[in-house]
Amino acid sequence: MQQNLLYDNDLDLHTLIAKNRFGTFFGVPQTLFDEVWQNLTASEGNSVVYISMEIGADPDVFHPIKDRLIDLERTDSMDSTLKQFTKKLFNGPEKIPCYGGGLGVLAGDTLKSFADCRIPVVAVSLLYRHGYFSQIVDSKLGQISQSVTWDPGKTPGLYLLRDPDNPKEPLQINIPFYNEYDQETLVSAQVWMKMEVNHSLDFFVPELLLDYSLEENPTPIRDAAGILYDSKSPIIKATQRRMLGTGILPVLQELGITSNTLHLNEQHGVVVALQLIAEELQTTLKNSDLTLASDEQILAAADKVARKLVYTIHTPVKAGHDRFDKSVYAGISHKSCHHILELLAHDPDSPHSYNFTTLAMRVNRTANSVSRLHRDVTHKQFPESAKKISAITNGVHHLTWISDARAEVFDSFSQLDNWRENPGVFKNAQILQNDSRFRTYLRRAWEKDSSTLYDYLNKMLLQHRNQMSSTWIDPPNYYSSLIDADHQLNPAIFTIGFARRFSTYKRADLIFDNMDALCSILVENKWPVNFLFAGKAHPADEPGKSVIKLILDYQEELHTKSQGLANLIFIPNYDMQIAKLMVAGVHTWLNNPKRPLEASGTSGMKAAMNGVPNFSIMDGWWVEGYHNGATGWKFGHEGSVDEADLSESPDSLLYAEDSASFYQTLPEVLQTFYESDSRARFLDKAIMNLCLNIPIFNTHRMAAEYLQKYNLNLPSSVQTRMDNFAALYNSNL
Ligand SMILES: *Cc1c(COP(=O)(O)O)cnc(C)c1O
Average of pLDDT values for 34-38? Predict the structure, then answer.
C-alpha cells in the first residue's frame, strides 16, 4: 500500500513532487495530489470550502514533511527541482505571518485535522503583505506595534498559482468593485496555495490565499490588502470583508472546484452569501436588472442559498460582529446588493448600519456555537434562529500541541498505542494512573519542558538587561534589572501561565486587583511563584493596550510586596511558538475572562493536551473540561446567564468579586504543588487531563461533529473512523 511506502525510510523524495495545470508542488506524490484534486473538482460537488479571515499554522510548530526530511537530507542524489524545494524548506527564514490569534489558530488546527482524517476540504483566506503586526513592549510606553514585511515568494510551502493558458504568468481572478456612483472597477487578485499535508503524508487540504496587493489595483484595494484586521478606517475594514467574500466564487470557478458546502468560520466572509443570492436572482429574473427583484424573490433566493451554508459563530462580544454604516458598504458594492442587505442584514442597535452577523445567522442551514455555555448565550442573542443553533465545542490539534517530551512518554506505553491517529486512545491513561513508571516518565517530561521554557525566559531577560543601554526600548520586565548569572529564574518554582489576546473582558490584570491579599498568601506560606504573561492587543484597542501597561506596572510592586517570592514576567510578541513553549512548560494555566464572554478559549485545551491543569473561571470550554475538579480548579462567579451579563462596561466586569474568589482558591493550588504529601495529587490531575480532556478537546472530534452537518459522501473506512471520533463526545448535551 502507498501509505506504507511513505513510511519507509527509503522514501524517494522525487516522489513527493506533483504537478497540475496551476503549478508544481512539493510534499505529496502525484497520485495522491490527483486524488485530492479530483475529489475537489468532481461534478457531484462532494467537498467543503472552509472560509476564514485568518489561518494560523506555523511550520515551526508542526511540519510533518520537514520532520521526515531531517533524517533524509541527501542532497547529492537530488535533481534540481527537488534541490530548490528542499533548499527553500531548510534555509528560508520566511513563514506566513497572517494570523492574529485564536480564530486563526483554530482554523489552522481544524484544517490539519481535516487533512489527518482525509476529509475533502479546501480553505479560502486572504494573504496580507504585512501580516498582522509585531509586538514590541516598552515598560514605559507599553505595546508598540511594528509592521511586518515578508516575501511570499521566498516562503517555503507557498505557491503562486500559474495561469494554465499562459504558464509564465500568474493566475488572476477579476472581481468587480464599485464606487458610490455605482461605477464598476475590475480588481485583480493572485492566488497563493499552501498545502496542509497530514502527519502520515497521505492527504492534504489546500489553502487558497487571495492576494490583492497588485500594482494595477487601485490604492484603496492595495491598502486593504496590507494588514489583517486593519481598522484604520471603516472603509478599509469593509473592503477587506468584501475582498474575502467576493473572491470565493471566482477562485473556485477558475480552479474548477465544485464544493456544495461553504463553511463560514465567523461571519467575515459572508459576502459570499450575497453573491450566491445575486446569482440565484439572476436565474429567477432571467438576467434582467437585479434591482427589480421583489422582497419575496430575494427571500426565496436567500432560503435556497442558505442550504449551502454552515456558519460557526465564535463570540457573544459585539466588537466581534461586523457592522458597517450603510453608506460605507454601499460605496464599494453593486446597488443590487443594497435591497438584499436591507432585508437580511438588519442591525438591531442601529438603523443606519448593516450587520453581517445578522446576515450570516439568517442565511445558513445550520449554525453552531463553540461551547455549550456559548450555545445557551447565542440562543438568547438570536432567539429567532435558536432552533438551528447547536453547540460544537472547539478543540485543538493534538499533534501540534503535545510537546516532543510528552510525545516520547506516550510512545513508551503500549496502552497509548496509536495515539497520533486516535486521540480517543487517551481514555486508557486512566489505566496508567497508578503505574509508577508512567508517573515518573510524565513528571520528568514535564520538568524537561519547564527547563526549556525557563531557558528561553532567562535568555530573554538577560537580553533585555543588555539591551537597556543599546536601544531606546525600556525592557518590559522589572526582573531584567535583577537578573545575572547567579540570579536566574528557577523552573522548579510554581509557574502560572496566562497568554491570549489582550482585551478588557479577558481581564489579564484580575489576579493583581488586590496585591496585598495576593502577596500575603505567598509571604505567610513562603510560597514562591512565577506568573508568566503574554499576548497582543489589537493596535486600535486602547483599553486593551492599557491592560498590558498595567501588567508591566504591577511587576515591581509584586516583587517587593511578596518579598521577592513572586515575579511577573511578560513575554513580548506572543505567537504559536511561544504558546507551545508556555502550555507545556508551566504548572498551571490561568484563564479569567468575565463570564460568559469567552465563548470557548483554546489555549487552556493546549495545556490540557500536555496534562497541565487549568485554574479558570467557569466560562467557555472549562465548564465542560473541569470534571468536578478532577482536572484543575475553578473560581469566580457562576450561575445562569442572561443578556445583562454580556455587558463589557468597566463597572460590570466583577473585578472585586472574582479576584477575591481567586485568592480564596489559590492556597489550595499552591499547597497541592508544594506540600510533599499532596504532590501526588498534582500529578493525578495531570493524568486526568490526559484521559478526560484529550479525547474531548481535540480537533479530530470537532471535525467529526462538523462532518455530521456537511452531508458528504465519504468512503466507508473514512466515515467509520469519523463516527468513532464523533462518539467520543456529544457537544450538544
Ligand atoms: C491558542 C492561541 C490563541 C488563543 O488562545 P485563547 O485561549 O483561545 O484566547 C491565541 N494566540 C495564539 C498564538 C495561540 O496559539
Answer: 97
R_g of the chain computed on alpha carbons: 26
Please choose, from the candidates 535, 582, 117, 51, the residue with its C-alpha nearest in 3D space to the C-alpha of residue 272.
51
Question: What separation in angstroms does the CA of 105 have from each of 51, 82, 192, 288?
Answer: 14, 30, 19, 44
How many A from CA of 690 to the centre of ligand 1?
Answer: 20
pTM given for the model: 0.96
Q: State what percent of residues in the chain have pLDDT above 90.
A: 85
Residue 429's SS3 state is helix
What is the rounded CA–CA span in Å between residue 449 and residue 590? 18
Which ligand 1 atom sits nearest the alpha carbon of residue 602? Answer: 8
From ligand 1's centre to the CA of 574, what distance in Å?
Answer: 9
Answer positive or negative: Cα dihedral of 531, 536, 542, 545.
positive
Rounded Cα distance between 613 and 650, Å, is 30
Other CB atoms within a 10 A radius of the CB of residue 149 amount to: 10
Whether the CA torsion 349, 355, 357, 363 is positive or negative: it is: positive
Pocket of ligand 1, candidates 501, 571, 612: which has the most ligand atoms within 8 Å of its Cβ, to mutate? 501
Residue 76: pLDDT band with limits 50, 70, 90: low
Torsion of the alpha carbons at 556, 557, 563 and 566, rounded to the nearest 10? -70
Distance between CA atoms of residues 36 and 38, nearest Å: 5
CA nearest to 423, candidates 80, 694, 722: 694
Distance in angstroms (rounded) separating the CA atoms of residues 103 and 501: 11
Mutate to test the pocket of ligand 1, among 55, 96, 105 (most ligand atoms within 8 A of CB): 105
Ligand 1 atom showing the smallest separation from residue 574 Cα = 13
- Among protein residues, the one with the nearest Cα to ligand 1's atom 8 is 601
Distance CA 585, CA 454 (A): 8
C-alpha 105 chain-centroid distance: 2
Q: What is the pLDDT of residue 14?
A: 80
Pocket around ligand 1: residues whose beta carbon is below 6 Å from it?
101-102, 105, 500-501, 574-576, 579, 601-603, 606
Q: Tell me, what amino acid is at 554?
A: Y
Place of cell 457592522: 323
Domains and CATH numbers, the chain: 1-37+50-102+114-158+190-231+249-262 (no CATH), 420-699 (3.40.50.2000)
Does the pLDDT of residue 121 top 70, yes or no? Answer: yes
- Residue with the nearest Cα to atom 15 of ligand 1? 576
Name the residue at shortest CA distance from atom 4 of ligand 1.
102
Distance between CA 11 and CA 8 in Å, rounded? 6
Cα 307 to ligand 1 centroid, rounded to whole Å: 32
**pLDDT recorded at residue 21:** 97
Report the separation in Å between the CA atom of 420 and the middle of ligand 1, taken as the mean of its atom positions.
22
Opening angle at CA 259, ends 360 and 39, nearest 5? 150
From residue 272, alpha-carbon distances to 177, 325, 339, 357, 553 in Å are: 14, 19, 16, 13, 46
Nearest CA to ligand 1 atom 1: 603
pLDDT tens for 178-195 read 988 889 999 999 999 999
Q: Which atom of ligand 1 is nearest to the CA of 600?
A: 8
Going from the Cα of 584 to the center of ligand 1, the distance in angstroms, rounded, reads 14
Separation CA 207–CA 204 (nearest Å): 10
For cell 449551502, the residue is 308
Say if residue 539 is preceded by a cis peptide, omega within 30 of 0.
Answer: no
Mutate which of 132, 266, 401, 500 for ligand 1 pocket (most atoms within 8 A of beta carbon) = 500
